[in-house]
Write a structure and sequence with these properties.
The chain is of the alpha+beta class and 458 residues long. Helix content is 29%, strand content 23%. It is built from 13 helices and 16 strands. The strands form 3 sheets. Strands 6-10-11-16-15-14-13-12 form an 8-stranded mixed β-sheet, sandwiched between helices. β2 and β3 form a beta hairpin. α4 packs across α13.
C-alpha cells in the first residue's frame, strides 16, 4: 500500500472511509483503558494527524499507547472525516507497526523546551513545532528568491567559495591551506597549493560583476564566511548571501528591485506558510504578521544619509550613540528612522565614502558614494547595495586610497576597461531575512547548524 502524506489528508484529497497508510513520528499519546490516541507527524506539514486506537482492534494496543515522543510508526487505517471537530479528520487505526521506539532518554519531552536548550541539541530541534516552522519558512524563502529572479530574467551564477581577494577590504577571513603549520611561525605562500594565500570567501560580488557584464543581470546565492570573533545575535561565521548584479541600472533602479524582491518573498510566505506564520506570531513575535503586512503594503521611503543625520540630531538626547555627519549609523538610529520617522521600511542613501567599500560609485561632491541601506522596523538594516564605480581611474585611485593593492584586483579593474557600463548590485544576508520573516531574535535559531565562536559541533 502506498504511503499517503499527511499534507494531502489536510488538502482533503482522500475520501471519507478510504484506506490510508501514514508513516511518521509520534508527537503525543494519550489513552483510556479501551481507547487511545496518537498524534503523528510526517514532516510534510506543520499539523499532525490524529490516530484513534481501539484495544479490541489492535493486538499491540498496550505497547502503542505507551510510546514515547519521537517513536517511528506506520499506521494503516480508515480516514474518518470530522468537519464538526477542530481537526477535520482522524484515522481509525487497523494496524500500527512500531518501526523504532524511543526510550525515556529522548531529549525532547512534552514540556516546551527553551531555545537555549534546543541549540544544544541542534540535530533534534527541527522536530519541535517552532523550529519546524522556522526551517520550513527558510525553505520557502529560498524558493521564493530563485523564483523571483528567474521570473525577472536573471541568470543564477555560482561564484567560488575560495578566493584570493577581500571584497570589503579589512574583513577577517578564514585562511585555507594545505600546509602543516605546527612548529612554524608562518605559512609560506610559495608552498601553497594555489601559489598564494587563499581564503573562504566573504562575498561573491566581485565574481558576480564579471557574469553581469556578460548576461546583463545575474544573482548569486551561496555560503559566505567571516572570521570575526563576534558573539552577537545577528552575526555568524558561516552564512548565506543573495547578491544580484544588474547592468545598465543606477541606484534608483536598484532600490526599486530591492523593494520588489522583499515584497515578493513576504507575499510568497503568506501564500505558502499560513500555519507557520500563525504559530510564530503566537509563540515567537506577537507582532510578526502585523509587521510583515506593514512591509508588503507600504511604499518604502527614501532619504539621504545627510538628511537623515539632520533629522536624528533633533533626537540625539535619546540615543546611546550620538549622531554626527561621518559616523557609521547604529541599529538604534536605523530603527528610529524606520519606526518613528517613516513608520515603514526606508532606504538611506549617499553615505560618506570613508565608511563604505572601495567599489562604490563616487558622487560629484567628492565626499559621498551612491550607496543605499534598506532599514526596516524591528531590526534595522536588512540589506545594503550601491551603484558600482565604472570609471577605471577613479576605482584605481580609491583602491590605493584605502590601502589595498591594485595587483590583487587586476581582473576586477579590467572590467572597467573592457565594456564598462553603469551597473549596480546589493547584498542581503539570507539569515537576516529569515530572522525578519519569522520573528526569530537570534541568528543561531534560523541556521540549521550554526557556525559561531565555540560552536561547530555538528
Amino acid at each position: 500500500m502506498e504511503k499517503t502524506d499527511i499534507k494531502e489528508l489536510y488538502n482533503l484529497k482522500v475520501a471519507d472511509g478510504e484506506k490510508v497508510l501514514i508513516k511518521g513520528w509520534v508527537r503525543t499519546t494519550r489513552d483510556s483503558k479501551v481507547f487511545g490516541f496518537l498524534e503523528v507527524n510526517d514532516g510534510t506539514c506543520l499539523k499532525n494527524a490524529q490516530v484513534v486506537l481501539e484495544k479490541n482492534v489492535l493486538n499491540n494496543f498496550d505497547e502503542v499507547v505507551k510510546l514515547n515522543m519521537g517513536s517511528t510508526v506506520y499506521v494503516k487505517g480508515s480516514l474518518v472525516l470530522t468537519p464538526q471537530n477542530k481537526q477535520p479528520f482522524e484515522i481509525k487505526a487497523e494496524q500500527v507497526q512500531v518501526f523504532q521506539a524511543t526510550d525515556e532518554t529522548y531529549p525532547i519531552q512534552k514540556k516546551r523546551a527553551s531555545v537555549e536548550y534546543l541549540r544544544e541539541i541542534a540535530y533534534l530541534r527541527p522536530r519541535t513545532n517552532m523550529f519546524n516552522a522556522i526551517f520550513r519558512v527558510r525553505s520557502e524563502c529560498a524558493f521564493a528568491i530563485h523564483k523571483f529572479f528567474h521570473e525577472k530574467g536573471f541568470v543564477y551564477a555560482h561564484t567560488p567559495i575560495l578566493t584570493a581577494s577581500d571584497c570589503e577590504g579589512g574583513s577577517q577571513l578564514f585562511r585555507v591551506t594545505t600546509q602543516e603549520i605546527y612548529g612554524k611561525d608562518k605559512l609560506n605562500a610559495k608552498d601553497e597549493l594555489f601559489g598564494k594565500p587563499v581564503y573562504l570567501t566573504p562575498t561573491g560580488q566581485l565574481e558576480g560583476e564579471c557574469f553581469a557584464q556578460a548576461f546583463g543581470k545575474i544573482y548569486t546565492f551561496g555560503p559566505t564566511f567571516r572570521a570575526e570573533n563576534s558573539n552577537t545575535t545577528r552575526h555568524a561565521n558561516e552564512f548565506w548571501m543573495i547578491e544580484p548584479e544588474v547592468c545598465f541600472a543606477d541606484l534608483d533602479d536598484l532600490m526599486d528591485l530591492e523593494e520588489e524582491m522583499i515584497k515578493f518573498i513576504i507575499n510568497h510566505i503568506f501564500d505558502t506558510c499560513k500555519n507557520e506564520l500563525e504559530l510564530l506570531n503566537n509563540f515567537v513575535d506577537k507582532t510578526l504578521i502585523e509587521k510583515l503586512n506593514n512591509v508588503r503594503n507600504s511604499k518604502f521611503g527614501r532619504i539621504t544619509y545627510t538628511d537623515a543625520i539632520e533629522l536624528m540630531k533633533k533626537n540625539n538626547d535619546n540615543f546611546q550613540y550620538k549622531v554626527e555627519w561621518g559616523i557609521d549609523i547604529q541599529t538604534e538610529h536605523e530603527r528610529y528612522m524606520a519606526e518613528t520617522v517613516f513608520g515603514c521600511p526606508v532606504f538611506i542613501t549617499d553615505y560618506p565614502k570613508d565608511i563604505k567599500a572601495f567599489y562604490m560609485k563616487q558622487n560629484d561632491d567628492g565626499k559621498t558614494v551612491r550607496a543605499c541601506d534598506l532599514v526596516v522596523p524591528g531590526i534595522g538594516e536588512l540589506c545594503g547595495g550601491s551603484q558600482r564605480e565604472e570609471d577605471y581611474t577613479k576605482l584605481a585611485n580609491r583602491i590605493n586610497e584605502v590601502g589595498l593593492k591594485e595587483q590583487d584586483y587586476w581582473w576586477y579593474m579590467n572590467l572597467r576597461k573592457y565594456g564598462s557600463c553603469i551597473h549596480s548590485g546589493f547584498g542581503i544576508g539570507f539569515e537576516r531575512l529569515v530572522m525578519y520573516v519569522t520573528g526569530a531574535g537570534n541568528i543561531r535559531d534560523v541556521l540549521p547548524f550554526p557556525r559561531t565562536p565555540n560552536n561547530c559541533e555538528y
